[in-house]
Design goal:
The chain is α/β, with parallel strands linked by helices. The protein has 9 helices and 12 strands. The chain has 2 domains: 132 residues, 3-Layer(aba) Sandwich (Rossmann fold), CATH 3.40.50; 93 residues, Arc Repressor Mutant, subunit A (Orthogonal Bundle).
Length: 242
């Protein structure tokens, strides 16, 4: 399943406006983010929630293009909010937190966060990260129509992955990572190469991102997870023969 706004706009990469949901209980942070989006991204719309429960309702009713999610919320931990929303939505999420702790970062990525920004942050950098995440909604094109390995198959035209005929629910970032692994089936892809292809040049040193997303892919692929092989010290390989 790809994000609805991506499917509706065919992911052309041209996004003159954006609807952002910021989830943070600090009025100062919310207002600062709102003002900077208005100045640096004309036509953008920023809506806000100060609790996790309000955020979950707004994600369902407000259909934001992206969510900026703080971890330290007064009612529900932000990572628990992320876990709940990933049950029903693949809207892109950037986690905001004052904690620069690797376990939180890895847990957030494994739960499906698309990026991670530590407070205090530079607003221009935050907006560029939002642009980078939204660019990843652009699905790569393949010369072939499909790919199959046993009961696993990818339909590149429909932008779907299936196992035994059942569609696997993937976020756009998960689909891109799987796409590049499958397109290079039988060839080891180094982590830094995958980072550049899936996340972009600015993320080439963020090896935690690849590890966390490979972990998520393996969970979702079920029996087909055996095709994703870790080559320690090098990267990952999609092996159709396994």
């Amino acid at each position: 399943m790809l994000h609805a706004s991506c499917a509706d706009r065919r992911c052309t990469g041209q996004r003159p406006s954006v609807k952002v949901l910021i989830v943070d209980d600090s009025p100062e942070v919310v207002e600062s983010v709102r003002l900077n989006f208005l100045m640096l991204w004309p036509g953008s719309e920023v809506i806000a929630a100060d609790t996790g429960r309000t955020a979950l309702r707004l994600i369902e009713s407000g259909h934001p293009d992206i969510v900026l999610l703080d971890i330290g919320l007064p009612d529900i931990n932000g990572l628990d909010v992320l876990e709940q929303l990933r049950l029903t939505s693949d809207v892109p999420v950037i986690v905001l937190t004052a904690r620069d702790m690797t376990p939180d970062k890895i847990r957030g990525l494994r739960l499906g966060a698309d990026d991670y920004v530590t407070k205090p942050f530079n607003h221009q950098e935050l907006i560029e990260r939002v642009r980078a995440v939204l660019r990843r909604l652009t699905v790569p094109q393949s010369g072939a129509a499909s790919f199959a390995a046993g009961e696993f198959e990818m339909d590149f035209e429909k932008q779907e992955a299936r196992l035994a005929g059942r569609v696997i629910d993937l976020t756009p970032t998960e689909y891109r990572l799987l796409y590049y692994l499958v397109q290079s089936a039988g060839v080891v892809q180094r982590q830094e190469v995958l980072l550049r292809k899936v996340w972009g040049e600015a993320y080439k040193d963020e090896t935690d991102y690849v590890r966390a997303y490979v972990h998520r892919l393996r969970e979702k692929l079920g029996d087909a997870a055996r095709h994703i092989v870790t080559e320690r010290g090098f990267g990952y390989l999609f092996d159709p023969s396994r």
